[in-house]
Amino acid sequence: KSKGGAEPIPGAAAKYGVDAMRLYYCHVGSPPVDIEWDPDIVLDYRRHVERVTRSVDDALSATGGAGTMDGWLASAWSKVLASSQAAFEGYDLRGAAGVLVYEVPELLRWYARRGGANAALLRSVIADWAKALCPIVPHIAEEMFQRAGGQGLCSVAEFPVPAAVDETALAAEEHLRAVLEDI
């Protein structure tokens, strides 16, 4: 502490948020690497936590029914969930955090952009996302779980099981993304 690079925990928790600090440690570190405290980077992680919260707000505000994009979202979510589960099982917190914090908001944004608004599907995805995020950012995850209609505590719920993946739906959307980028 006398040489810098350290902050008292109560002050840091108030300044950055506990979940942002946890995300920072999960995503920056890996078992063979020493972690150096960098307040500017922790502020970046706070913005990522806020982005997750905004994605949840947007998803839970949907009021539509079943649509053509539902198969894609269910498949894309299952793929992300399987990837995060494999990362957790391999004690790769960085990999799990990367997939859950960075990829899922993009999935939700693409789903909404393409006209997806199935409220029931989105609530299910948010509840499962909360269960998967709980080891990394437990405070936000509990709030997400409750807002999505989850019963009890997210921290004692079973980890969600990935469903079957429809590779055709994923390939069709990937093709569409490639065409849009080319245009």
Features:
183 residues, mainly alpha
Structure overview:
By secondary structure, this protein is mostly helical. It contains 8 helices and no strands. α4 (70-89) runs antiparallel to α5. The N and C termini lie far apart (53 Å).
Give a short overview:
The protein contains eight helices and no strands. The protein has 183 residues and is an all-alpha fold.
pLDDT averaged residue by residue: 88
Measured by DSSP, the beta-strand proportion falls in: under 5%
> How many strand elements?
0
Structural class: mainly alpha
Which consecutive residue ranges, at least 5 long each, have pLDDT under 50? none
Separation, N- and C-terminal Cα atoms: 53 Å
Proportion in helices: 55-70%
Shape: globular
Order of helices and strands: HHHHHHHH
> Tally the helices: what do you get?
8
Secondary structure: elements and pairs:
Blueprint: H1 9-16, H2 18-28, H3 39-60, H4 70-89, H5 93-113, H6 119-133, H7 138-147, H8 167-182
